[in-house]
């Protein structure tokens, strides 16, 4: 870690949450939490020590002894209270999120709200955590299943959705009877900590939810710890692959939602104005820092003539700090992120793509030191180019010509990632063909970012996902519980003896 600046020395420290207490870390390693629009130091976040991480897991393990026996209705009522508190503090949470992450206030509220939907889903745990029963599977024999919690679970979350993704994880894990250790991104942990404080206020008992901070050491500690039974991860493909391999080797259940390269197909019969609006919003919202961002558009046939209108809409977006009225997109999370995105834009030019709109080094009055990159559009993009092969995680859109729908489907299926895809058309037949033949886990039909509501599960696929079960929805109930099958026979005291049975069958 670098030596702290004077501003950092004066900034408040982010606390650890262990055993229901907000604690000052004893760490000697700290990172500055920086406003990406102004470079103002907002706080200092500690990299938790091994002893602190062990203490968090131990608190969760101890709390599990009683939490797993807590009536399901009691758990549900806590999350009813929690969703109420989140709604009451929505403006505060959005302001914190914007300050440390950079997205606009409206987008920050959306970040919180999409997490709030999962909290509301957790409040319905009584209808979700149901087993099965078969009566009289043999004479006087019933078989039924119990969905029981695993124990201590852990979550590792990214910087781009510091409210939504933690809320994807710990509410469902805790509602199903587990306890939890969360490691949020060290780049923007403040809104996550505020959500944890509200969870305590809602009635989550001490030790049921714990929060530690850190980098690689903390991630490895959670993957290795013998008392952690399951790990949930959202982030880059590189780190996610490491987490999956390390945690599964340690015998844990693991789900990893990772990188993406999301494509949309635009057919000539699509509504032009509505489609262009959708493409621009999905490509450049949150400055492109979404794992579900739309980063590649296949323009089929005559839609290739729509490029000037697409560029005009993108150019009209207002770039500013997320707190400013009318801002459409804010800065990237860090100076390093800006430099990486600008480097990929330069590679796109060098490798022969046509730069239709250049967002490098924009002038943002009043925020000249911010990490801004404006909307950037390339046409004539081909496989093998860095701007196509890599997840840019910035406001860069690649346009690819396609002769027909079959060619577009083949092009998308050839990409290793499978997080999300979309088609824009007014043809039901074309849409049905696309949803049947496309090899991507989440499909939008005239919907550019097809993230499902919590009634369903997030179903990214292929290189975008490791593990069979996704976050929230029915799948996450199965992830956070162990199915126990019970076969039972009760004898009537007046019944006659059946004799010794040496076969495997029930009778």
Automatic annotation (TrEMBL):
CDD domains in UniProt: ALDH_F6_MMSDH
SUPFAM superfamilies per the UniProt record, alphabetical: ALDH-like
Record has Oxidoreductase as a keyword: yes
Cited Pfam families: Aldedh
Gene3D superfamilies, per the entry: Aldehyde Dehydrogenase, Chain A, domain 1, Aldehyde Dehydrogenase, Chain A, domain 2
Keyword field: NAD, Oxidoreductase
Domain named Aldehyde dehydrogenase: residues: 25-486
The EC number(s) this enzyme carries: 1.2.1.27
GO molecular function annotation: methylmalonate-semialdehyde dehydrogenase (acylating, NAD) activity
Family: Belongs to the aldehyde dehydrogenase family.
Protein name: methylmalonate-semialdehyde dehydrogenase (CoA acylating)
């Amino acid at each position: 870690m670098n030596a702290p600046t004077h501003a950092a020395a004066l900034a408040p420290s982010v606390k650890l949450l262990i055993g229901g207490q907000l604690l000052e870390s004893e760490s000697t390693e700290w990172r500055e939490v920086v406003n990406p629009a102004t470079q103002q130091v907002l706080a200092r976040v500690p990299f938790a020590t091994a002893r602190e991480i062990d203490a968090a897991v131990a608190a969760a393990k101890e709390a599990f002894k009683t939490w797993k026996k807590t009536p399901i209705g009691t758990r549900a009522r806590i999350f009813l209270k929690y969703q109420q508190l989140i709604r009451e503090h929505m403006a505060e949470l959005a302001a914190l999120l914007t300050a440390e992450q950079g997205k606009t206030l409206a987008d920050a509220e959306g970040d919180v709200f999409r997490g709030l939907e999962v909290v509301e889903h957790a409040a319905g745990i009584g209808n979700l955590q149901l087993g099965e029963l078969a009566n009289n599977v043999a004479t006087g024999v019933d078989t039924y299943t119990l969905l029981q919690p695993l124990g201590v679970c852990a979550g590792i979350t990214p910087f781009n959705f510091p409210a939504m993704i933690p809320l994807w994880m710990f509410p469902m894990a805790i509602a199903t009877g587990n306890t939890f250790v969360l490691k949020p991104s060290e780049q923007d942990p403040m809104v996550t900590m505020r959500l944890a404080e509200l969870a305590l206020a809602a009635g989550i008992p001490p030790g049921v939810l714990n929060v530690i901070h850190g980098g690689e050491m903390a991630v490895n500690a959670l993957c290795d710890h013998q008392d952690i039974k399951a790990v949930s991860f959202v982030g880059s493909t590189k780190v996610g692959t490491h987490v999956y391999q390390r945690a599964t080797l340690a015998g844990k259940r693991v789900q990893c939602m990772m990188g993406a390269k999301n494509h949309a197909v635009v057919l000539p019969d699509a509504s032009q104005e509505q489609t262009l609006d959708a493409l621009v919003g999905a490509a450049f919202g949150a400055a492109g820092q979404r794992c579900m961002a739309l980063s590649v558009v296949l323009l089929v046939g005559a839609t290739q003539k729509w490029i000037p209108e697409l560029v005009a809409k993108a150019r009209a977006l207002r770039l500013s700090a997320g707190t400013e009225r009318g801002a459409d997109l804010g800065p990237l999370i860090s100076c390093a992120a800006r430099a990486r995105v600008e480097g990929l834009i330069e590679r796109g030019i060098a490798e022969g793509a046509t730069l239709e709109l250049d967002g490098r080094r924009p002038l943002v009055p009043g925020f000249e030191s911010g990490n801004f990159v404006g909307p950037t559009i390339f046409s004539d993009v081909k496989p093998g180019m860095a701007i196509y092969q890599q997840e840019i995680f910035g406001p860069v859109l690649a346009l690819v010509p396609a002769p027909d729908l079959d060619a577009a489907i083949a092009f998308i299926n050839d990409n290793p990632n499978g997080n999300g895809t979309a088609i824009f058309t007014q043809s039901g037949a074309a849409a049905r063909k696309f949803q049947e033949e496309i090899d991507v886990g989440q499909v939008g039909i005239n919907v550019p970012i097809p993230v499902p509501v919590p009634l369903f599960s997030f179903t990214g696929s292929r290189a975008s996902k490791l593990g069979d079960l996704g976050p929230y929805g029915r799948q996450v109930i199965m992830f956070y519980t162990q199915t126990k099958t019970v076969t039972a026979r009760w004898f009537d005291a007046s019944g006659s003896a059946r004799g010794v049975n040496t076969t495997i069958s029930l009778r």
